Amino acid sequence: MLQNSSIVAFLFLLVVVTWICGQLIVDNKDLHFPIMIKTSTTCQTSAISNKSALIIFTPSKKTAKLLTQNLCNDNVVAKQYGSVIGYWGYRTADSVEFVGKGIADLILAKNNIMAAFKAESTYNYQPVVGFSDYTAFFISSKEKPRITKQYFLDKRIGLLDYPTSRSGHILPKQTFKELDINLANLKITYASSHNELRDLLANGEVDIIASFWKQSDAERFSKNYITPLSSNISGTHWYLKMQQNNTDLLCAVQSHLLNMSKDQTLHYYQKVKPYWDCGAGSASFIGELKDE
């Protein structure tokens, strides 16, 4: 019995000594774990002593980086924040996380997601600028799509792998349901973006896709071969959390968003519309401006 106790004590002592030696050899400061996927960018305003951060979220990495830097250089932002953090995420779950918990001060989101979480009433998110309503289409490369059950059953169909996308996911599946088509009987290929859908169609990997129509599509496809799914689909909007009546920040943000829209390559994103009149040193809600 005594011998067994001695063995246990010896093994315990050996473990302790090994751990101490390990701590002496390895400096914790030298341990660095690489970030596998970078999904944020941060910059410092001129108010280096201010610990407050303005948080942005958008599905676009390019937009997040550009807007973050622009706001860091803004005098109004520097009077209120010491830094700006821009996050981006391509999945629906990413938008849901930021909207549902009210994490972002400024966020680009679809109104159906904002409505689902009652974000405007819960966190007082106010629309700053919005993009125009649009129409969803079935697009083919060789014929005009027909909205019939028989037509879709022998077609290879490309859809968007985002459950909240109205043009690329919700509306086409709604159409199939109305036609009494079981999705299991369809040959569906899911894509991660609208551009990937277009590549699938152009390369002959699918026969038809569900998406919106943009001007550059005429270079790859015929406008005679599109069939509307639904019109007047609400576009995305930039929302600012207005838990205080912070109209200076609102007008500064709106100004940057309007200026950034001029450099967008897609015509759709160039037609951004403001919700606020920031003239004469004040801000008043005017609703979404209409096209002239």
Give structural notes.
The model is unreliable at 23-37 (pLDDT under 50). The chain has helices at 2-25, 61-72, 75-78, 92-100, 111-116, 119-122, 149-153, 166-178, 194-202, 247-261, 267-270; strands spanning 40-44, 53-58, 83-88, 106-110, 125-130, 134-140, 156-160, 187-191, 208-212, 226-233, 236-241, 273-274, 276-277, 284-285. The strands form 3 sheets. The protein has a 7-stranded mixed β-sheet, sandwiched between helices. Strands 8-7-9-6-10 form a 5-stranded mixed β-sheet. It folds into 2 domains: 40-131 and 235-285, 3-Layer(aba) Sandwich (D-Maltodextrin-Binding Protein, domain 2); 134-233, D-Maltodextrin-Binding Protein, domain 2, CATH 3.40.190. Strand 7 (156-160), helix 8 (166-178) and strand 8 (187-191) form a beta-alpha-beta unit. The chain has 292 residues and is of the alpha/beta class. The longest helix is centred in the first third of the chain and has 24 residues, at 2-25. The radius of gyration is 26 Å and the shape is elongated.
What can be said about this structure in brief?
With 292 residues, the chain is α/β, with parallel strands linked by helices. The protein is built from 11 helices and 14 strands. It is elongated, with a radius of gyration of 26 Å.
